[in-house]
Amino acid sequence: MRAKKASTMSVIALTVLIAGCSSSNGTSSTTSPAPAAKESTPAAATAAPAAKKVTITAQSFKADQKEKNDQLDQRIARFKTKFPNADFKKDDWQYNPLEIGIKMASNSAPTEYTTYATEGKVLVDKKWVADITDSMSSWAHAKDMNDLLSKPFVVNGKTYGVPIDGYVMTITLNKKLFKEKGVDLPPMDWTWDDLLAAARKINDPAKGIAGFIPMGKGPEAGWNWTNFLYAAGGDVQKLDNGKVVGVFNSDAGLQALEFYKKLKDENLIPQNWALGYGDALNAFAQGRGAMVMCGSGNAADTAINEGGISKDDLVVYPMPSFTKGGKHTGVLGGNYRVINPKSDKDQQEMAFKWITDEYFTDDFLNSTKKEIEDRKGKNRVYIPQPINYWKDSSDFGKKYTDLLTKYDNVFKYDPQLLALWDGKPEAQYEAQKYYTEMANVIQKVFTTKDVDLKKALSEAATKVQTETFDKVKVE
User: Fold this and answer.
1) Which of 36, 123, 152, 328 could share a disulfide with 117, CB 3.0–4.6 Å?
2) Is 468 helix (H, G, I), strand (E, B) or coil?
3) Which N-terminal stretch is annotated as signal sequence (predicted)?
């Protein structure tokens, strides 16, 4: 959904995965003919012209994030040893879909910036990202990139962004709460009914323990709900003769809303259900809910390293299928590095080198190793993402897996998770506005006793269509 959904891997990626090919710095010399009958003397070598200085503005971090900025400075220094003609400015602006248009119009956007999966086609259509197809195709590691993660920024066969990390939505369970209640864990190949059954058994409002914690405010509420829309076989939108048409007002959408209504009617969610992303994860970390939905390992990270829950008391499940044997479809999203199309050709080429420099390198593995060991020294656990920018089958992927197996403070995912889950990319056009409107519908479901679900969904679909989707220009 948004950049904050990325876990520890994002921090490493944003500060480690940053640029590099090599440039030609050859020198040439000429020797003048020696005068006749005189001892020849070497002429002064003609120095090759210095490489043209190229200045790019790199995305940095807010001033209070000193450690991250220090790491960024170290990486800039490493990069400049390879490319001494590179100069850097820094800009701590963080991507905001409401601000990017202003930044582009005022020509004040950084040369490269980080955005998220929902923004792919919007940024491409508005010409706010550069086409990096040529740079990508000539890059030695292009074939090792995870095709699924790359997909949101591949538009009409051209590449516009480099994935940093990604997630497929999951549900994290607190095994300790199940054990305390004497309740068996549901099968990992579970269904909506299995989730409801488990939530009913664990739910204990008197003790402030909810069976299930959905996010209930902000666009993350709509983001959460979309997983059930997908699992029921629905979709957010489609293209029809060059127009974006909303299709979430469907039988699948109605079934997903009915599921949310059951959660509310049976009092299976927190009494204070208006929880944003951080609120929901904190509630889970505090033991105030048995299950929470979020991107990949982020709930486990918060619960273990902030809430003090043992890593052995947590397990990550795929999204439940609508019916037994169905797909465990969850929203696929992530973070991407893109390049400002208003920068000149030299800046764009340097920015691509900067972005990809430490991908597939020992620097990345060593930084991961250091992060794991630093956490171990602080009695903290490293939570890897189960899906990464690289293909697991690549040589680099195998090295990464081997590294993780050497430490006992690394959270491990059940192999069934990776075998069962199915990722469906986020909506490619104005997803954030769609999420926000669906959040309003979800709040109606959670506050109105006899809400007309079909009417509420229909009204939301009409509003999103007329106010947002109809205004999208697809080229």
Assistant:
1) 152
2) coil
3) 1-24
Residue where the block lists tokens 């990069």? 79
Residue 184 and residue 280 in one domain: yes
460 is a domain residue: yes
Instruction: Measure the CA–CA gap between 279 and 144, rounded to whole angstroms.
Output: 37
Q: How far apart are CA 40 and CA 42, in angstroms?
A: 7
Q: What is the CATH number of the domain that holds 128?
A: 3.40.190.10
Q: Is 217 in the same domain as 261?
A: yes
Rounded mean pLDDT of the chain?
89
Instruction: Give mean pLDDT, residues 20-45.
Output: 35
Residues in the chain: 475
Range of the domain at 183: 168-332+410-471
Asked whether residue 214 carries a pLDDT value surpassing 80, the answer given is yes
Q: Is the pLDDT of residue 333 over 90?
A: no
Token pair recorded at residue 385 = 């993402």
Crossing angle of helices 362-377 and 8-16, rounded to 10°:
140
In a domain, 373, yes or no: yes
- Give counts: helices (H), strands (E), the chain: 18, 12
Q: Domain check: are 320 and 181 in the same one?
A: yes
Same domain for 132 and 104: yes
Angle, CA of 248, 420 and 266, to the nearest 5°: 55
pLDDT tens digits, 396-446: 999 999 999 999 999 999 989 988 999 898 898 899 899 999 999 999 999
Banded pLDDT at 1 (limits 50, 70, 90): low
- pLDDT tens digits, residue range 143-164? 999 988 898 899 999 999 999 9
Q: Do the domain assignments include residue 272?
A: yes
pLDDT at position 49, please? 62
Q: Compute the distance between CA of residue 429 and CA of residue 439 in angstroms, rounded to an integer.
A: 17
Q: Is 108 a domain residue?
A: yes
Q: State the pairing for strand pair 243-246/237-240.
A: antiparallel
The Cα–Cα gap between 301 and 184 comes to: 24
- With tokens 């299928």, the residue in question is 321
Instruction: Provide the domain count of the chain.
Output: 2
pLDDT above 60 (res 20): no
Question: Based on the domain organization, do 271 and 184 belong to the same domain?
Answer: yes
| Spatial separation of the C-alpha atoms in residues 44 and 32, rounded to whole Å | 9
Which of 27-36, 191-200, 211-220, 260-269 is predicted least confidently?
27-36
**Are both 205 and 321 inside the same structural domain?**
yes
- Kindly tell me if the per-residue pLDDT of 395 is higher than 50: yes
Contact status, residue 294 vs residue 281, Cβ threshold 8 Å = yes
Other beta carbons within 10 angstroms of residue 55's beta carbon come to 14
